[in-house]
Each structure stands twice: as structure tokens, then as C-alpha cells.
């Protein structure tokens, strides 16, 4: 128990510290690396409360894929830091407002404000007992039954975002020679190869 | 006396700590020896493909060659380029090497021979193997060199692409098993060797193996370090043991993905024939043999195939493997559901 509490405080401290470093660090690449550290420690916190499935998904999706692409983009961009810093104070109130909204939502979910009726603990009673089955199975059982339509809607939203991203970035440039594998494979032998009898000392014309 | 010792190692936190440390050493020390000899076997296999002898001078049959190479790497000077980012430059090879080692915590060597028998073993392995790319990207960026950076970018795009199809391969296997625990994956394949998943899921086994080649940056997908265009790719600026860690990490990753392939498709520690003389051989030997077989295929492809062009690599990953594996997930799910073979929870 003592060890668990100690682990919690270590992970929580590193999450907070690295989240702060994401904002204040001067180099955007460092920011992304600190973001990855924050993801990792958040995953460790999930493991501590026994939500190992969510912890692993957090690492796979965010650390393994999303942050790689972040890093990819940030390393390639030539970001001017002084330009970025100029807007810092201007956007601070907006950021603070978003922070307050998120804090209020968390407090609402925990039942600190609004009482027990809206809190997650009340909602959690409706789900399967986590102790009885492992939590991968538990999530599957509610996700594909109780929340099936919401799950489908989330999928559609992602699909729309994906199509949007493709439409925004797809441009057909004329004059670019592309490799068409099917054309290559369908080309018959007589068009591809000619057998030439080479006379000695003359070569092929 | 013995009861006291058992009590100490099972209840006392110090005793438990010692047991865990011993378990970790029992996995990593043979693994590092295996990595060292994998470099030797690799060179021997290429040599025989090219009708050469390979390393044969240091020790009998050249068996001490890996240690000579290691000693050379340790004794060389570590050069850090003056315009490189010092901290990240040093951290990158450590990440590359460490991620290849920590994944072994969940690999079952025999029935019950596993350090951490966790319920999400497959996901853990997948998560850790997707982290290996960070060592490479950070190395490429911290070197502050064009070749290294281009190699790192290629590697990032390549590993992210092939992870997607590996993910679908893992999903089909876990559909057939009904659990994410690696020991249960092996137990689900008990019986004759045609009960192992390589036969019912043959297309996925092929996709897994090719994606494993891409994931470990091996030929024909070794574009991140293609010497013809990028000098040495992401580790151009690295020397001595910082390079050595990348090299060892690459081989440890190869062994890891071979082990994963053996667990998922070749029945892990199971013997191919479930009858007496074969079942007397300990499971860990069968497991090692299966890993060795897959590693031989790794060396074989490296000795045989030319390198892919980069757009062909991306085409294969996104336009061939992704649709095929996605379709196979749907087919497997449908067959299991309507054929009544769905694993019992």
C-alpha cells in the first residue's frame, strides 16, 4: 500500500511536471518529447488503478502513433519561437477558460459539485463488475451493447475527419509519372521483350 | 531452514525484490548472449549464401568473433558531433536498446515461465515494439545531419505504416484465442503442429513476418539506413558503443519479433507432435528452435532480396497489407461467429 501510494505520487508528479514543460520549454521538439513522457506516466497511473487495457491503448495510440507523427511534423517545420511567444499573453485568458471548463467537468464527474446523481460512480454501478471479469472484457461488454450507437457515431466522426484530411491534402499534379503496377503486370511478353540476333562486330542499332 | 528461506523469498519485500531481479537477469543474460551470437550466425548465413566462409579467424570456427567485435566497439572513442544535441544524442541509443529488452517481460518461455503474466500481454508487446521508433527518430534529429534526419523520417513513416497491419494481425489472433494473455495464446494452439495458427491464419502469418521485417528495418525494408543513398541512415553520426547499442537493439528487436511470431503462430513452447519422445524435450527448447527458425528466415531474406524503393514500400504497407488484413479480420470474425468456433470466455 505504501509502495502504491509512493508510485502514485511519483507518476502524478512527473505527469504534472512534464505537462508544464510541454508549455514552457523553448524548443518544440522538447515539448513533444515531454508530452510523450506525460502520456507514459498517465498510462502508469491507469495501471495503478487497474485499468490496464486503457493504459496499453494510451501507449499504443498516443505514444506509438500520434506522438510519432507530431514529432515528425515538428522536426520538419522551421518554427520561429519568438513569433509563437508573441501571442502567448493574448491567448492566455482563452486557455485559462478552457482549463476552468475542464476542471468543472472533472469535478462534476467526481460528484464534488452537483451531487451523486451526475457522478461517474453512479454511472459505473450500471456497468459490469470490474472485479469479476478482466477489464478488456468489461469494456467490450458495455461498448458493444449499451453504448453501441455512440460507438458507431464516434466511428462516423472519425471517418468524416479522415475523408476531410484526404480531401484537403490530395492534389493531382499534372506531368508526374506514376508507377501503375497493374499496367506493368498486364503488359504482354511481346510488348516487353524483343529478341534480337546481334551480328558480330556491329552491335544493336 | 528451507521453510525460512521460502518465507523470506515469498513474503518479505526484500526477498521478493531479489527474486524479481534474478528473474530479469535470467531472461536478459541469455538474451544478450543470443544477440551476440545472432550477429555471428547472421554473418555465417550470408557468407554461405555468397559462397564465402564468413568469420572464421577469432576462436574455433570464429565463435569468439562477437566478443572481439563488442570489445572493439567498447574501446573506441565515442564521438559526439559539436553541433549535435548532446543529451538526446546519448539518450537515443539507450531508448533503442532498452525498448528491445523490456518487452521480454511478458514472453512465455514455457508453461508458467514468464516474468509478468499480465492479462494484456499482446497489447504490452505491441505498445513496446511501437516505441522502438523513438530511438531512431531522436537519433536522426539529435545528430543534426541531413542523412541521419532523412533516415529517421523514413523510419518513422515506415514503422507507423507497418504497425497498422501488425495490429490487425494481432486482432485476428486474439479473436481466435479470446484472450490477450500470451500464455493463453500458446495454450489455445495445443495439439499437432497443424493446430498452430500458422495454418488457419496463413495469410496473416505472411503479413506478420513481412511487417516484422519492416518493423525491424531489415532488408528488403532497410531504407532508414540504406548505405547507397544515406551513408548509414539514422546512425551515420554514431560511433563506438552508442552505435553498438543501436546494433544490439536491432538484433534484440529481431529476436523479439521472432519470439512474438513463434508465440502467435508457431505454438510457442508446444512440441509439434504431442506424443512421448517429443514431449520429453522441454518447452523452452522448442521455443528456442522456433525462434531460431524465424531468425534464419530473417538472415535468408537479407542475403537474398534487393532493397525496396520507398514508394513501393509505402504502397505495399497501405494498399496491399492494410486491406488484406482488414478483410481477414472480418472473415475470421464471421467464420468464428457463424461456424460456432468462438472461444469460450
List keywords for this structure.
heterodimer, A: 205 residues, mainly alpha, Four Helix Bundle (Hemerythrin (Met), subunit A), 10 helices, B: 345 residues, 68% helix
Topology:
The complex is a heterodimer of chains A (205) and B (345).
Chain A: H1 2-24, H2 28-48, H3 52-76, H4 81-86, H5 88-110, H6 120-124, H7 135-143, H8 148-169, H9 181-186, H10 189-192
Helix pairs in contact in A: 1-2, 2-3
Chain B: H1 2-11, H2 13-49, H3 65-75, H4 86-102, H5 121-129, H6 132-142, H7 146-177, H8 182-187, H9 202-215, H10 227-230, H11 240-265, H12 276-279, H13 283-304, H14 310-339
Walkthrough of the structure:
The complex is a heterodimer of chains A (205) and B (345). By secondary structure, chain A is mainly α. Among the domains of chain A are: 1-79, Four Helix Bundle (Hemerythrin (Met), subunit A) (Up-down Bundle), CATH 1.20.120; 134-170. Chain A has helices at residues 2-24, 28-48, 52-76, 81-86, 88-110, 120-124, 135-143, 148-169, 181-186, 189-192. In chain A, helix 1 (2-24) runs antiparallel to helix 2 (28-48) and helix 2 (28-48) packs antiparallel against helix 3 (52-76). Chain B starts with a helix and ends in a 6-residue tail after the last helix. Helices cover 68% and strands 0% of the residues of chain B. By secondary structure, chain B is mainly alpha-helical. Chain A binds chain B through residues 3, 29, 33, 36, 52-53, 56-57, 59-60, 63-65, 68-69, 71-72, 75-76, 133-134, 136-137, 179, 181, and chain B through 13, 88, 118-120, 123-124, 126-127, 130-131, 133-134, 137-138, 141, 149, 152-153, 156-157, 159-160, 163, 167, 180, 311-312, 315, 345.
What is the N-to-C succession of helices and strands of chain A? HHHHHHHHHH
- Percent of residues in β-strands of chain A: under 5%
Given as residue ranges, the uncertain stretches of chain A (5+ residues, pLDDT < 50) are: none
Radius of gyration of chain B: 21 Å
CATH level-four homologous superfamily name of the domain at 1-79 in chain A: NADH-ubiquinone/plastoquinone oxidoreductase chain 6, subunit NuoJ
Task: Give the topology string of chain B: H per helix, E per strand.
Answer: HHHHHHHHHHHHHH
Question: Number of DSSP strands of chain A?
Answer: 0
Helical percent range of chain A? over 70%
Q: Could you tell me the mean pLDDT of chain A?
A: 82
Distance between the termini of chain B: 43 Å
CATH class descriptor name of the domain at 1-79 in chain A: Mainly Alpha
- Which ranges of chain B are low-confidence, i.e. pLDDT below 50, for 5 or more consecutive residues? none
Figure out the total of helices of chain A.
10
Evaluate the radius of gyration of chain A.
Answer: 28 Å
* Largest interface in this structure: A-B, 25 and 30 residues
Roughly how many Å apart are the termini of chain A? 87 Å
Overall 3D shape of chain A: elongated
Specify the structural class of chain A.
Answer: mainly alpha
Number of helical segments with 4 or more residues of chain B: 14
Secondary structure: helix percent of chain B? 55-70%
Amino acid at each position: 500500500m505504501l509502495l502504491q501510494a509512493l508510485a502514485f505520487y511519483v507518476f502524478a508528479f512527473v505527469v504534472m511536471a512534464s505537462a508544464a514543460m510541454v508549455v514552457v520549454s523553448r524548443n518544440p521538439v522538447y515539448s513533444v518529447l515531454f508530452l510523450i513522457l506525460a502520456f507514459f506516466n498517465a498510462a502508469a497511473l491507469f495501471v495503478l488503478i487497474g485499468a490496464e487495457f486503457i493504459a496499453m491503448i494510451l501507449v499504443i495510440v498516443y505514444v506509438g502513433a500520434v506522438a510519432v507523427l507530431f514529432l515528425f511534423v515538428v522536426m520538419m517545420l522551421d518554427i520561429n519561437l519568438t513569433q509563437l511567444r508573441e501571442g502567448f499573453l493574448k491567448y492566455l485568458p482563452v486557455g485559462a477558460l478552457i482549463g476552468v471548463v475542464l476542471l468543472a467537468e472533472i469535478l462534476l464527474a467526481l460528484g464534488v459539485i452537483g451531487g451523486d446523481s451526475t457522478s461517474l460512480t453512479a454511472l459505473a454501478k450500471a456497468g459490469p463488475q470490474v472485479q469479476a471479469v478482466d477489464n478488456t472484457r468489461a469494456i467490450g461488454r458495455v461498448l458493444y451493447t449499451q453504448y453501441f450507437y455512440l460507438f458507431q457515431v464516434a466511428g462516423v466522426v472519425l471517418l468524416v475527419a479522415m475523408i476531410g484530411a484526404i480531401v484537403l491534402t490530395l492534389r493531382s499534379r499534372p506531368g508526374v509519372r506514376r508507377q501503375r503496377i497493374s499496367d506493368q503486370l498486364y503488359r504482354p511478353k511481346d510488348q516487353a521483350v524483343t529478341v534480337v540476333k546481334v551480328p558480330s562486330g556491329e552491335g544493336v542499332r | 531452514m528451507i521453510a525460512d528461506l521460502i518465507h523470506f523469498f515469498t513474503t518479505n519485500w526484500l526477498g521478493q525484490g531479489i527474486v524479481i531481479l534474478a528473474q530479469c537477469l535470467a531472461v536478459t543474460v541469455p538474451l544478450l548472449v543470443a544477440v551476440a551470437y545472432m550477429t555471428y550466425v547472421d554473418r555465417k548465413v550470408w557468407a554461405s549464401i555468397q559462397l564465402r566462409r564468413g568469420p572464421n579467424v577469432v576462436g574455433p570456427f570464429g565463435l569468439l568473433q562477437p566478443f572481439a567485435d563488442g570489445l572493439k566497439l567498447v574501446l573506441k572513442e565515442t564521438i559526439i558531433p559539436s553541433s549535435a544535441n548532446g543529451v538526446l544524442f546519448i539518450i537515443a541509443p539507450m531508448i533503442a536498446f532498452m525498448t528491445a529488452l523490456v518487452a521480454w517481460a511478458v514472453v512465455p518461455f514455457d508453461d508458467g515461465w514468464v516474468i509478468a503474466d499480465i492479462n494484456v500481454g499482446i497489447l504490452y508487446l505491441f505498445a513496446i515494439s511501437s516505441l522502438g521508433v523513438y530511438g531512431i527518430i531522436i537519433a536522426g534529429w539529435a545528430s543534426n545531419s541531413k542523412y541521419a534526419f532523412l533516415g529517421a523520417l523514413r523510419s518513422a513513416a515506415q514503422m507507423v505504416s507497418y504497425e497498422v497491419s501488425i495490429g490487425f494481425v494481432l486482432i485476428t489472433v486474439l479473436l481466435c484465442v479470446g484472450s490477450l494473455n500470451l500464455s493463453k495464446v500458446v495454450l489455445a494452439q495445443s495439439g499437432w503442429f497443424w493446430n498452430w495458427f500458422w495454418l488457419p491464419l496463413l495469410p496473416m502469418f505472411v503479413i506478420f513476418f513481412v511487417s516484422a521485417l519492416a518493423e525491424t528495418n531489415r532488408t528488403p525494408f532497410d531504407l532508414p539506413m540504406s548505405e547507397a543513398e544515406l551513408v548509414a541512415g539514422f546512425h551515420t553520426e554514431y560511433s563506438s558503443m552508442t552505435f553498438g547499442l543501436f546494433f544490439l537493439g536491432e538484433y534484440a528487436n529481431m529476436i523479439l519479433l521472432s519470439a512474438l511470431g513463434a508465440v502467435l503462430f508457431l505454438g510457442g513452447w508446444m512440441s509439434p507432435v504431442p506424443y512421448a519422445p517429443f514431449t520429453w524435450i522441454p518447452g523452452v527448447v522448442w521455443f528456442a528452435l522456433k525462434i531460431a527458425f524465424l531468425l534464419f528466415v530473417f538472415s535468408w531474406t537479407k542475403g537474398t532480396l534487393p532493397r525496396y524503393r520507398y514508394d513501393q514500400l509505402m504502397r505495399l504497407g497501405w494498399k496491399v497489407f492494410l486491406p488484406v488484413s482488414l478483410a481477414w479480420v472480418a472473415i475470421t470474425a464471421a467464420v468464428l461467429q457463424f461456424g460456432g468456433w468462438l472461444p469460450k470466455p
